[in-house]
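Re: weekly structure request thread

Next one in the queue (203 aa):
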Amino acid sequence: MIVRALVAAATSFALTAPAVAQPSVIRRVQEHMRGVQTMTADFVQTDRKGQRLPGRLTIKQPRKARFQYEQGVPILIVSDGRALTFIDYQVRQVSRYPIGGSPLDILLNPKRDLSRIAKVVPSAAPGVITILARDPRRPQFGSITLAFTERAGAPGGLMLEGWVALDAQNNRTTVRLSNQRLNLPIADTAFAWDDPRPRKNRK
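Done, posted below.
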């Protein structure tokens, strides 16, 4: 149901459906994101073609993340706080992008003022709060729709359940989380990665 709510919310945005203005909810989401210093979770990623890839997500503020896919998937995505790095071990290719140019920056940068870039949008599932964020000054960076459920004891009384990211070409990636654990110690070494390129080709 949460995945359906996320997709519906993201689709309604693409169709410019009206959003629901709820500043108090935005404040709770901001409180949650600023209160989560670390998070680990299992995830299932679904791309626009319907391909599903499970894995393990690790987040540490500020702006560090690791998407470790299941064994046999030769792809790794890591944010070191400055750049988002895509590593394809099968073809030995590494691509780096500024994290600020990705919709994930909204998720990984709790200092962003959500009241300026986010709106509450209708959810297709009871009890699910969906927040759509997009920087109006940088529409080329796409958008992200975050889904939360009520969770006593969690920062802001909310728990992040997943998101839908839309790039500038309207390509959609859905991520559903489970087994979330918050604010446990995580070493910076968790965001290291092995470079598959020949040493002479590294920059």
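The first strand starts at residue 38 and ends at 46. The helical segments are 2-14, 23-35, 104-108, 114-117.
Next request, please.
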